[in-house]
Amino acid sequence: MRFAVSLLVIICIASVVGTVLGQNQSQGTYIDRFGPFWYDVFDKFDIWQVYNSVWFLVIMGFLVVSTTICLIRNVPKMVRDMRSFREHVRAGSLRAFPQRVEQHIDAPAGAIELRMRQWLGRQGYAIRERREGDAVLLAARKGASNRLGYIFAHAAIVVICVGGLLDSELPVRLQIWLGDKKPVVDNMLIREVPESGRLSLNNPSFRANMMLPEGSITQSAIILAREGALVQPLPFSLRLDEFVVDYYSNGMPSRFASKVEVIDWETGDRFDQVIEVNEPLRYKGVTVYQSSFEDGGSSVRLMRYPLRGGQAEGTLVSGVVGESQDLQGNGQAALRLDLSALRPINVEDLTTGQPQPKELGEHVAAVTGSAAGQSNSNLRNVGPSIEYQLIDAAGQAHQFHSYMAPIELEGFPVFLFGARPSPAEDFRYLQLPADENLSLDEFMALRASLNQPELRREAAARFTRENSPAGGPNAEALQNSAERALETFSNGGLQAVAQFIDGNVPEAERERAASIVVRLIGASLESLRDINRERMGLAALPQQGDEALQAQIWTRLAVAALSDLAFYPADSVLTLVDFEQRKASVFQVTRSPGKNIVYLGCLFLVIGVFAMFYIRDRRIWIWLKPEPGADGPAASTSLLAAMTSQKRTLDFLREFSQFRQMLERMAPAADDQTQQAAPAAPSPTEKTS
After folding, report:
1. Rounded distance, CA 128 to CA 241, Å?
2. Contact at 8 Å (CB) between 416 and 427?
């Protein structure tokens, strides 16, 4: 019993972990949540898929074996005890019971026996008698089915565990361990998978995944094993005709559904079905659930803007999400571009800090209702975005995330370009100010001009003319200072300026010098911006009013962005220009015969709990032995009674008290019944007759 309880406690704790902690997510998600150290610790216990871990399955197996042995050993004894009245008990044994009554009643034994039978019958007792000469033993019982509670409760544990094991990965793992099945570890098409990587169509139990782009058809699902994957054929095919997503007013998805055509190649039947969350498809013993959705290979057009050198114009890059292509670096070695994900909808709360692309599970939670806490007035849709990776020749990769449209932060529209070295970290965003046309053209022109010495020189000269009298004694020095400040800033941003000041200015004057240089850089960049606008055919910047204030904010943001370019881990940024979305639905496909077994086990558990708590077992033994009176015939009876139960609760003690009081009232009732039942003595005349 202690062993079984210990196993149950471990299983309960593991089940809590499996319920609270999301299962079968990406490695980066867990590293981001727990950190590398604790990830390695938890990974040894395989808590990311706790229900299919070896130790959990072993514990379940031990619990099944232990409880089964317990049932085999004890059920026959319990059944015999339920059927037994224990009518062979001796009078001496009854005197050892705590709850007993022993008394003499001045009434014949037959009348008392009749009275006892009537009372026991009204109380619901079944009675069996045993006679020894003139003495009689009445053995009564009720609530014997209480023992069924223990039997059904223990059987429920076995049945539920067997059903759970049948629906786990154990059947598939047994085919891997004992059969000729070998998971596929290489990247290949389904039709290229060898027979050793395919499971049988009649596989009794499985839980697989299927990603189906719009317009595609498949008859296979994928079962992920730790070291690879196996192909699970289905008894029918699915064609995804359309994937539909409905949204709330704030952009959160309210419903998504898959309109599919089911094709049974064996019978030729075809029918349409809508699969959505909590409304699966059930056909031929297979259940298809709407799990999530992915990109099915959308076509995208990107504009690549350089961040180094004097070129401002962007180049157009086309690609397909999920595919890779070579990308020539700006004066560097070629890079490989992996287009990871297209997100047409991005719902962000921009009051909490920098935005982060949502995990797919958060969208699913919104659909199923568990993300209600995210519904607040600060959430809004900020438009499409693209995620991609740039991988260099050494294999080092950085992940990037950029939004298609500018996002208003602190009252000004900016383009956000996020970067991170690994999925375990959050994106850190570069904020590039948008111009009046909500484009990057003016900022990119300013960046390119800053890297051209002749334009820096022209901007410094214009700044000097506007801020110093013509031919003044300090004009040349001011121009040289402005030109040197722009040159230093172009080579490393504000950090390079700070290093220059630290190396050339006394410590006591550094703070004042830094303030002067920053103002000098901002004013010189305004002059450089004026030059660019003239070259681009744009109107001059306003000098007064709200528009002038907006121009000053743009310049301030541009200074910060140009300084941050030195820390951006790429020589260019990619922004989404246009896309043609192709959706893909992700299904979970299961065959789970153990489900009905678990339901049966739950029924057993309900019956067992009800029987144990609401059916009370009682046993009563009553010995009646006639005793001869003074007149010769037996006119009194010796009564010995005992009452017992498996659990001597307060209810039991109250029932025994009522039983004892009934016996104490027995003598007068027996006498009355004897007088009513005995015939009158015949007269001598009647005797003669």
Report:
1. 73
2. no
Q: Give per-residue pLDDT as tens, 327-363.
A: 875 555 678 999 999 988 887 776 655 665 554 444 4
C-beta of residue 402 within 8 angstroms of C-beta of residue 396: no
Residues 359-381: pLDDT tens digits? 444 444 333 333 333 445 567 77
Query: Which residue segments constitute the domains of the chain, with CATH numbers given?
Result: 1-83+145-167+596-615 (no CATH), 88-143+618-677 (3.30.530), 299-437+572-582 (no CATH), 444-567 (no CATH)
- CA atoms in the 13 A half-sphere facing the CB of 652: 19
**How do residues 47-104 score in pLDDT, each as one tens digit?**
888 887 888 888 888 888 888 998 999 999 999 988 999 988 888 899 999 999 998 8
Q: Which residues contact 567 (CB under 8 A, 6 or more apart)?
A: none
Distance from the Cα of residue 98 to its chain's centroid: 56
Whether 585 contacts 297, CB under 8 Å: no
How far apart CA 103 and CA 115 sit, in angstroms, is 16
**Which residue type occupies 593?**
P
State how far the Cα of 152 lies from the Cα of 382, in Å rounded to an integer: 57
**C-alpha to C-alpha distance for 141 and 586, rounded to whole angstroms:** 60
Give pLDDT tens digits for 431-454. Answer: 999 998 999 999 999 999 999 999
Residue type, 368: T
* Rg of the chain taking only CA atoms, in angstroms: 44
CB-based contact 106:131 (threshold 8 Å): no
Residue indicated by tokens 């001009």: 449
